[in-house]
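On clarity, I found the account of how folds are encoded harder to follow than it need be. What matters is that the chain and its backbone geometry are given together, residue for residue. I therefore recommend that a typical entry be quoted early in the introduction. An entry of this sort, consisting of the sequence and the corresponding backbone structure tokens, reads as follows:
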Amino acid sequence: MCLFLDFPELVRGIITLNSRGFPSSLKIETLTELVEKKRLFHRFQHPYTIHVSLDLSHDGEHRPTVQQWRREKGIGVGGFGRVFLEVLEIRQTSEAGQPATYKFRAVKEISKSGLTDQTYKRELKAIVNFSQEKFNHLFVESYGWFHTDDTVFIAMEYFKNGDLGKHLGRLGKPLPVLETQQIAVQILEGLYFMHSEGFTDRNLTVRNVWYEMTGVKFSN
């Protein structure tokens, strides 16, 4: 038997269920909720930032996972703050001589001094918003954030090639026409999405556009 549903009635039914407190698969998280879900628990033990999370194991138990990120060096300046490279050693060098395995991340530090709560919270919202999967091809992904009384820290995707300005400096000559066109299109597309989501970039330079072989990404 084929059952045909009246679409307006179906929508009204979903709205009614939600108004009664029933869960709906169509419920969309607010941006504020997304920001809170990205918050990382942390403590500092120089030169490490240590994160602890409870992860669900294969047997259904929640077990703590500890990550110790070691700060390496400063790698740039972003909107409202400085950016540092941090390294996580996933596997140590084995007795058989297998090399250690590492993960890398960039961490932006934003000083709260001189900034209103609204300013840095809007920065967080922008970064988390554009870390959604639908924007991954254009914007730097955020892995989470944490804070102290005077500083906000935002962990982000790291690009070993650096920003577009550094790439142009290494190249020492103009970009090929085709690559220039590709980068221009990506930047315009990124600006379009930013404006359509209610955000603006007041500091668009080659220093906050990150370069990789497949193109460029915006850093908020």
